[in-house]
Amino acid sequence: MRTVDLKIEDIAFGGKGVARENGKAVFVPFTIEGELVSAKITREKKQFAEAEIVDLRGGSPHRVEPPCPYFGRCGGCAYQHIDYAHQLEIKAGQVRNVLQRIGKLKEVPMRPMVPSPREYAYRNRITVHAENGTIGYFRRDSHRLIDIERCPIAMDEVNRELADLRAQSVRDGHYTLRARSGPRVFAQTNDGVANALRDLIVEVIPSNQQLLIDAFCGAGFFTKALLDKFERVIGIDWDRFAIAAAKESATEKETYIGGDVEAELSAMLQRSDPNQTTIIVDPPATGLSGQIRKTIVDLAPATLIYVSCNPATLARDLADLGARFKIESVTPLDMFPQTAEIEVVAHLQRSHDSTI
Length: 356
Prior knowledge:
By secondary structure, the chain is α/β, with parallel strands linked by helices. Helices cover 25% and strands 30% of the residues. The protein has helices at 84-101, 156-166, 191-204, 221-225, 240-248, 261-270, 290-299, 311-321; strands at residues 3-7, 10-11, 17-21, 24-28, 36-44, 48-58, 125-131, 134-138, 145-147, 173-178, 209-215, 230-237, 254-258, 277-281, 303-308, 325-333, 343-350. The strands form 3 sheets. Strands 13-12-11-14-15-17-16 form a 7-stranded mixed β-sheet, with helices on both faces.
């Protein structure tokens, strides 16, 4: 394959540097905007090309030495070569850009990016894979495994679990290692940022509210933090184990429902006073279904908090929700330092011309 000289112009969502050759976008991983590189084209399509760096001819002042010996081969981290402050700048810019491009938002009421208290050793769980005696992660752009003795972004307790696993003779398969015992239900992987996320939601929701509906509630992480602000709270999730965990410590004002989120949310909204109702949605990366978006627009609660792990699907959903809601704020949070992943919270209020 041919080698080309490029200037990196931007960092795309997903972490790859973007350059141009004769007008065509060329994506080069492990680069930083402003850098001059020689790169080998590895894949070429009509609209874009992909390349691997061969020589760094002009490095960025934001470039640092990655501390992980597997960086560049492991498929997990994308930004260990970039100083942390600049990682935050890149991610905040990506959120703004995707909301403008996909969500068609002219003005994005962005709040500052919430950093992680820990740049490394923050993950409270990891999933490793075992095959033919190799225990580790998948290699970048591959389903082949790379043997991992220690993961720098995982907490020490998790790495001790990994060391124990590696000392055993294990069957081929997938193994989730955790920093602590507890119910095997979804929870955020970065405790410090999860707490900041919860505190942010508590901050933006006013007191003396009537009803909170927490869709995709898990074990009630947000719901239970908001009990003092509502007369009644309802959590909905498809995961019956999460619902069982939420019920274990439930008070009289808490109701948790296991079932289809789409159907249950619609039923709850139809029976509630929209002027006295707040909804929290924390969907998977695919975002809200078209039917859930339609239900929320049609029955328009007073307040909507949208927690997203995928800015692209958030932008798509906000474009629809804009029919009845005004975006008060958008706050990105760095739940996953060193990776290209971004968590975002959008706070929406029903538009004044949409009162019911």
